[in-house]
Design brief:
Blueprint lengths: L3 E6 L4 E6 L5 H12 L6 E2 L2 E3 L3 E3 L13 E2 L2 H4 L12 E6 L5 E9 L12 E7 L1 H8 L3 E4 L8 E4 L4 E8 L22
Antiparallel strand pairs: 1-2, 1-12, 2-9, 3-12, 4-5, 5-8, 6-8, 7-8, 7-9, 10-11
Length: about 190
């Protein structure tokens, strides 16, 4: 049985995702590690792009322990065919050739074939797509970032993840393989 993660939102809603370790093992390990450290608890969702995606963080949740990059799954596991990115998937954000974020999940709101092999699909929503679609429609305001071409619209009324609860079904997951090149995105500084 695959592990699950339940996002308990401050408005009482839940988003339940099934993690897919066979499709993106290192990404799943990274997500589990960050959740176990409480990195997502109490966090306000930072970026919503209607018609494209709901991005839970672009600042590594403002937590030092989340400010690391992991290699792309395609580099670590070329034998695994990457999954397609579409509504109902959970993907890990990334920074081009620099690598993927340690823990910046996003939820696509459209089919994104351009993500395949770049932003790994590491989970699927099994409950709560109505909450993802509700988040897409909340009022947002633009935010300036260190990247002028990077569009960030954040909710006017904070949309808070109260806590994330894992169900690992008795299995343990190792710490992720991390990259060690010293580069971090400017949005993390």
């Amino acid at each position: 049985m695959n592990p699950t993660a339940t996002f308990h939102m401050a408005n009482g809603s839940r988003i339940v995702i099934e993690l897919l370790p066979d499709a993106a093992p290192n990404t799943v390990n990274s997500f589990i590690s960050c959740v176990q450290k409480g990195c997502l608890d109490g966090h306000a969702i930072q970026r919503i792009v209607p018609g494209k995606w709901v991005d839970f963080s672009y600042t590594a949740f403002d937590r030092e322990e989340c400010k690391y990059l992991i290699p792309r799954e395609a580099d670590l596991h070329p034998e695994i065919e990457p999954l397609d990115s579409h509504p109902g998937c959970v993907c890990m954000g990334g920074y081009g050739e620099q690598g993927n974020a340690g823990c910046e999940p996003f939820f696509p709101l459209k089919d994104c074939p351009e993500h395949k092999g770049i932003y790994p699909v590491f989970g699927r929503v099994i409950e709560g797509m109505d909450e993802i679609y509700r988040l897409e429609k909340v009022e947002t305001t633009p935010v300036k970032t260190a990247y002028p071409d990077y569009i960030v619209d954040t909710p006017v009324q904070p949309q808070i993840i109260e806590k994330v609860v894992l169900e690992l079904y008795g299995k343990t997951y190792p710490e992720p393989v991390k990259m060690d090149h010293g580069w971090i995105p400017r949005t993390w500084k």
